Amino acid sequence: MTDALLTAHGVTKSFGATPALHGADITVGTGEVLAIMGPSGSGKSTLLHCLAGILRPDAGEVYFAGQRIDQLNERARTVLRRDRFGFVFQFGQLVPELPVVENVMLPLILAGVRQAAARLRAAELLDRLELTGLDARRPGELSGGQSQRVAVARALVSRPEVIFADEPTGSLDSLSGQRVMDLLVDAARDQAATVVLVTHEARVAACADREVVVRDGRVSALVGS
Amino acid sequence: MTVSTTLLGLLEPEPSHGYELKREYDALFGRDRQLSFGQVYGTLSRLQRDGHVLTEGTEPGGGPERKRYAITTSGVSVLEEWLGHAEPPQPHLQPVLFTKVVLALLSGRPAGTYLDLQRAAHLERMRELNGLRRDSRLTESLVAEYGLFHLEADLRWIDLTAARLDQLAQEVAR
Fold first, then answer.
1. Which residue among B113, B126, B162 places its CB closest to the CB of A202?
2. Vertex A46, ends A42 and A47: CA angle to 5°?
3. A194-204 tens-digit pLDDT
């Protein structure tokens, strides 16, 4: 593995009385594509959310690029997520009222980039993800695979250092899912972005450089630790 | 290799007779193909010749005298080595994997560890096939896809079994 970009030590997280993580440890290298696997309810999505600063762990430490991020306040974590991370979720979570190109531009606009520059960059990503000509469509007019590719374009548009993807192909058929994964991994590598991917599908995990398994709230020490 | 190592696995928890071993093998693993007595005694004889089992004496009964077989240290090593190595990922592995899991449970070994080892080996092979699928002409790509679909099915079985190890341990307990 190359230098560690993301590290979690002893991360514990419960939701009310329900424990999700019990002292999870994980390290993700710079530029690595890592798959987090595990059965339903194992805590794999919670781990991703803790690594991405979406959730604050109850105990343990999370570091990104040498900086401890689990103790940052909500505002600082929001800025971190906006400026340095990109996200792809199972259901693209595109804004239905906005055309495709504006969905992709959104992170840049929120970060204060000018419209023209944002539009140019969005068009570049749409081409890269084989969505040329679809910029004026609304999300409701796209297939599932196209929607997820728009979500990938949006996640990559601000050149984040890490892409967090939570079951990015979970709502797609096998072939569309494979295409989304191929494009996601290729585009991330083009930009030297690190990818942390949660999936229960072996096909998807096999697109990663390495996999870890989360079981009962801990990262398996045996596989890929 | 599988029949002989399976017999070693069945002998490890406690010494047993050929007849008992056949009965146990058939009950646990012989759904499609039960062992013949000739296979059992032939295999035990080879294992004895190679020093992996020994006979602990004979017991007189109503019929012919019965030999009681016990595993030796060398037999345990053979078994350990077999259990500790992932099988080369290929389609239709399930009977071997199932046998390994059951024998690990019977001997109190961490069956989940064997499944994890196998999962890692499968995913490594899937990564290779993924590379082939993407770099090759359609004909080769489709062959890679065939392998990927089969390995994917194996992995689903591995995950399902891993989730039910406690239940399986109870079911196969002697």
1. B126
2. 90
3. 999 999 889 89
Q: Which residues pair with A13 in a beta bridge?
A: A21
Nearest neighbour of A202 by CB, restricted to B117, B123, B162? B123
Find the helix packing angle between A144-156 and A115-128, rounded to 10°. Answer: 130
Q: Please determine, for the modelled complex, whether the ipTM score is greater than 0.90.
A: no
Helix B94-106 / helix B18-29 crossing angle, nearest 10 deg: 120
CB neighbours of residue B64 within 10 Å: 8
Please provide the distance, in angstroms rounded to a whole number, between the alpha carbons at the two ends of chain A: 10
- A183 with A22: CB under 8 angstroms? no
**Could you tell me the CA-to-CA distances from A104 to A4, A125, A145, A151, B109 in Å, in that order?**
29, 8, 15, 7, 52
- Residues 6 or more apart whose Cβ sits within 8 Å of residue A176: A143, A144, A145, A148, A169
How near does any CA of chain B get to the CA of A89, in Å? 23
Q: Which residue has the higher pLDDT, A142 or B94?
A: A142
pTM of this structure: 0.79
Is B17 within 8 Å of B69 (Cβ atoms)?
yes
Where does chain B show beta strands of DSSP type E?
A: 16-17, 53-59, 66-71
Q: What digits encode the pLDDT tens for the residues B46-74?
A: 999 999 999 987 766 655 557 899 999 99
Cβ–Cβ gap A223/B120 under 8 Å: yes
Do residues B4 and B45 touch, judged by C-beta distance below 8 A? Answer: no
Rounded average pLDDT over A77-89: 92
Query: Are B123 and A182 in contact (CB < 8 Å)?
Result: no
Give the Cα separation of A13 and A6 in Å (integer). Answer: 18
DSSP B87: P
Burial of B122 (0-12, 13-18, 19+ CB in 10 A): buried
Of B174 and A16, more confident: A16
User: How many whole angstroms separate alpha carbon B19 and alpha carbon B165?
Assistant: 28
